[in-house]
Fold this sequence. Notes:
Strand order of the largest sheet: 1-5-6-7-2-3-4
Distance between the termini: 78 Å
Shape: elongated
CATH class of the largest domain: Alpha Beta
Number of strands: 15
Bound molecules: adenosine-5'-triphosphate, magnesium ion
Number of helices: 9
Helix content: 40-55%
Largest sheet: 7 strands, mixed
Amino acid sequence: MHEVFEAGLEPTDACPASLGRDELRYRLRQQSLLGEFGSIAMQTRDLRKILQQATELCAIGLQAPFVKVLEYELDEDRLMVRAGVGWALGTIDAASLAADIGSPAGFAYQTGQPVISNLLEADTRFRMPKLLADHGIRRAINVLIERGGGGKGFFGVLEVDSADPGQFDQDDANFLAGFAGLLGVAIERQQADASFQGALKHQALLTREMSHRVKNSLTSVVGLLRVQARSAPSQEVKNALEDASSRVSTIAEVHDHLWRSSHVGFVELADFMTELCKKLRGNTGKNTLHCDADPMLLSADHAIPLGLLINELVTNAVKYAYPGGSGAIEVSAREINGHLHVEVSDQGTGLPEGFEIDLPRTSLGFKVVTGMVRQLRGHLTLSKDRKGTRFLLDLPILSHPDESTPDGRWPESRGRYRKKGLRGSEGQ
Length: 428
Ligand SMILES: Nc1ncnc2c1ncn2[C@@H]1O[C@H](COP(=O)(O)OP(=O)(O)OP(=O)(O)O)[C@@H](O)[C@H]1O
Ligand SMILES: [Mg+2]
C-alpha cells in the first residue's frame, strides 16, 4: 500500500477514528462494497454509470456525504468533476479543481500518493478549493485513479469529503485506493471496448462501402450488356447478352441489399426477394409473378447463388411454361426447422419428357442452377405430382460456418437469422 500523506487530527486512544461504530462491520461492509462494485463494473459498458456507481458506493463505504471522480483534462490542466454525490446541482462536468500540488486532489494526482486531510482549513499544505469551501468541507481523502490499474497512464482522482468533524484513517485510504484500482481497470476496459467498437463500426462502414461500389460497378456492366444486346447481330446473341445482363443484375441486387442491410454481410431475404421479383417482372410479359418470403436474414454467400438460381428458374418459366399464352409463376421462400425451402413453380406445359435435373446438357441455364445448388450445399428436387413445373430447393441455412458479422453483432438467433416484422410478398 502507498505511503499516505496525512494531516489534521490524529486518531488517539481518546478519539479513535472508529469511535462510536462497529469497526469490524464497517470494514466488512467496505469489502463487500468493493466486490459489489467489481461486478457492476464488469456488467456495464457505460462509463458514466460506472463512475457514478463508484461515487455512490464510496459514499456508503466511508459514510461520507460527498464523493467525486475527477478526470484530468490535459488542455485545461485541471481536474474536472465527472461524477459525484452530495454536490450542488450543476457541479458535474462544470466544476473543476486545480491539478497542482496546492489542492488535495492535485497533490494525489501529482504524487500518486493517497492524501488524507482531516482538517483542511488548518492544513498548511493546501489552499482550500472553492468547491470544497462552498460545501463546507472539513476533511478529505484523495487517491489517484490509474488507467488499467497501473502502467497505462492516469485517469484522475477519486475524492471523498465530509463536512463532519470525524476522521479518515489509513484503512479508509486503503479501501479508497482499492476502489480506485478497480475503477481504473473498469475505465481502461470500457475505453478499450469503445475503441474496439469504433474499429468494428469503421470496418462495417468499409464493408458497406465496398458492397455499394461493387453494386455500382455491376450496374455499369448490366448497362453495357444491354447496349450490346440491342445492337446484337442475331436474336441468339441478343438473347445470350440479355440473359447475361439479367444474371449480373441479380448479383448487383444482392450487393445493393448488402450495403443497405442492418447486419453487415447479411441481406433481409423478404426485401431482397421483393426487389428481385420486381426486377424479374420487367421480363415476364403477360405472365404474373408472385413472390413471398419469410422475414429472415440470409448471408451474402447464400443470397447470391439463391438469387441466380431463382433468376434462372423464373426466366425458364417465362420462356417455356406458357407457349403462346400466359399464366402464373410463383416463388416462395420459407424457413422450416432451420432449413430454407424455396419453391419456384408454374402451371404450364411441364418439362419435356425424360427431363432430369442432373442430365448433362448444352444449355447454360441448368448448369448454372445445379452449380448454385452445389455451392449452397442444398438439394433441388423436381415435383412431378401436379400440372406444370415445380422446383423445390432445400437449403440448410444454419450450417453456415461464419455466423458473426463484421460490426460485432450477431444475427438474431433461431432464428439466429430471423428478423421480426418483415414480410415481403408482392404479387402482380
Ligand atoms: N418451367 C418450364 N416449363 C417448361 N419447360 C421448361 C421449364 N424450364 C425449363 N424447361 C425446359 O428445360 C430446358 C433446359 O432449360 P435451360 O435453362 O437449361 O436451358 P435454356 O433456358 O433453353 O437455355 P439458357 O438457360 O442457357 O438460356 C429448356 O430448354 C426447356 O425446354
Ligand atoms: Mg434457361
